Amino acid sequence: MRLGRAPAKLNLVLELTGRRANGYHELAAVSHTVGWSDVVGLEALAPGARAPDACQLLVYGPHSAQVPHGPENIVLKAVRLLSEQGLGQATSRIVLEKRIPTQSGLGGGSADAAALIRLSAPDAPTSALEEVALACGADVPFALTGGAALVGGIGERLEPLPPLSDQLFLVVVLAAISTAAAYAAVQARDFSDGSRAERLASSLRAGSVPDPELYGSDLQPAALRTSATLRQRLQALRHATPGTPWAMTGSGGAFFTPLDDPERAVSTARTVALACPGVLVRTVVSEPGWPDRI
After folding, report:
1. Residues with active-site annotation
2. For residue 163, what is the DSSP state?
3. Residue 9: inside a domain, yes or no?
């Protein structure tokens, strides 16, 4: 069995810049891989073996209960797309250790699909893998390479950026937010011009630490409209940590803040855990790119 890590990401900034005729939203974002990973394992069919009617998916781990097992599963979608394109070796079984919480805005499902693509077809042309990634979902192209990137279009336009060097973040998952529900709740006033994403990208190009005021997601108002739990817990989080700049990643419901001092990170994590019972609190460090193997 081949194994690979599937790292989460933080959308340091995400701006909604338009909506296409087909309903897809255009965005300007800066995404960054962080050290919080699922683990994907796959078993390829032996040469000459008869392919099963369906690939077997086994899921375990702290967030396994929320993972769908039907055709809507993004990892199984990646398997089908690879097969249709004749890429890689046929897969008979996939094992997924689900460590990244679902519906958190951390990109766990997209990372799982990207890991499957890379493990299944390591020798395929990059352009072919990128096409499969985009067909899987808008976040999968970034997950295929990781690191740091300025993201445009619906997620298919990527400009690699110099990654942050061992930047520590405290991440608090306040609620599970459906990506579809968040986008459905977007209003005209939630759109912006992409300038924050460009300013943050410029900071990374210059090797500077970004201004935390640039962090955040245009989807935060929409996510708050969809979830009373998110509204209540965000209020409690801010009340317990005055002066701490919390930003939402992606479509939510995870929030993050950058910290330079590990001791302060531990202290803040304890404060949050006491003030917001039931939330998931974790420290993560920025990573420079996609790890091919465990």
Report:
1. 9, 139
2. P
3. yes
Strands 25-44 and 91-97: antiparallel
Query: Could you report the average pLDDT of every consecutive run of 10 residues in the chain (294 residues)?
Result: 94 97 95 97 75 81 93 93 90 95 97 96 94 95 96 96 96 97 97 98 97 97 98 97 97 96 95 96 90 52
In this structure, the strands spanning 148-152 and 25-44 are antiparallel
| Residue 294 lies inside a defined structural domain of this protein | no
62, with CB counted inside 10 A (0-12, 13-18, 19+), is exposed
Which residue in 243, 224, 237, 233 sits closest to 181, CA to CA? 224
Reported in sequence order, the residue ranges of the chain that DSSP labels E, i.e. its strands, are: 2-19, 25-44, 56-60, 91-97, 148-152, 157-161, 168-173, 216-217, 247-248, 254-259, 280-285
pTM over 0.90? The answer is: yes
Nearest 5°: CA angle at 256, between 255 and 260?
165
Residues 157 and 175 in one domain: no
Which helix (H) or strand (E) segment holds residue 141: the answer is helix 140-145
72 vs 78: CA distance, rounded Å:
11
DSSP 284: E
Of 161, 176, 197, which closes a domain? 161
